[in-house]
Structures are given as C-alpha cells and as structure tokens.
Structure prediction request, 135 residues.
Amino acid sequence: MSNVSYMSASAEVQKIDYWFGLSGSLLSGEDVAKHLFAAADLMRSQVWDPQLYGLGSDRQIRDALRHTAMDGHGDADTVYVARQVMEAALRATTGARYVDCEVWAEKPQRTLDEILHLLKASASLARFFGPRITA
Prediction:
C-alpha cells in the first residue's frame, strides 16, 4: 500500500461505526489486528497459495479467518470488522467505491504475497487506528 492509500484507508477506519461487531459489541483495534495477523500466519505457514488452491478448496481468505476464529484468535465479530478494514484498504488502493475482499482474493491472478500484504496492512491499520479499549 502506498502512503497515500494508507492515509485514506486510515481516515476511513478511524470512524467509530467500523468497530462494532455483529453482536453490537465495540471491538478494539488490537483484537482485530491479532485476528488478521493470525490469518496471515496460517496462510503463510501452510502455503495457502491461491494459484494452487482454487475456489471451494477451503484455503481462501474467508477460511483462514474462520479457522483462526475457531482456534481462539477471534470470533464472528472480529471476522466482520476485519473484513471492513480489509475492504477500506482495498478501496483506498484500487480507487473503487466498493470492493469485496473475498472476491478480490479469489481472482485467478491473485498471489499469496498480495493476500498476505492485504492481511498485514489491514492488521496494521486496525492496530494503529482502531479503538483502544481498556477493561
């Protein structure tokens, strides 16, 4: 992500309505970042290369988020907000008004490096610009 697209994505993810999960709970940026980093680690360590694994393979970005939620790195709320952060990053990068992160990741020419970059850049956005919630 260039500095310009990172800044426009950061402005969008700072809006408070981005940080409420499907349950209505307010999430911290750190919780969302941990889930995104865990999904990236899973995809990298198991080489979930989209050039090798096609649609329906259970090796897509949605599957990485689901598997890491089942492993305790997040839940349905962090998956929902993580998608929003990734889509904000993609909108800033592509200039499109709407981007679905799963459809973007499933394009035949998409590489594992591109997907990992999206996950890690989105995690950084969440960590630095998301809410800080203390108990």
Q: What stands out?
A: The two ends are 33 Å apart (CA to CA). Helices lie at 3-13, 29-45, 61-70, 76-94, 101-105, 112-129. The mean pLDDT is 89.
